[in-house]
Amino acid sequence: MPPRWPRKPDRQDPEYRKLDDRMTFAVHVAIFAAFNSGLWFFWNLQASPWTWTPWVTLGWTGVLAVHGLYIFAIANYSK
pLDDT by residue (tens digit) across 36-65? Predict the structure, then answer.
């Protein structure tokens, strides 16, 4: 069941921005997990594994960590 918002959604509302940013982060994590699991699945099927696969995963993990750091530690949701 999707989350319900008790009033009209407005990006100027700090509580709505906080929820929206966290939901965006959750989508980012889901896409990361789906893409990387598929990437590593096909990496294991290769006779000569792709050498760039670990770099894609490490790079994306770094981007995901920065995104999470911003959302949970840096973002200011005050009016």
Answer: 999 999 998 887 778 899 999 999 999 999
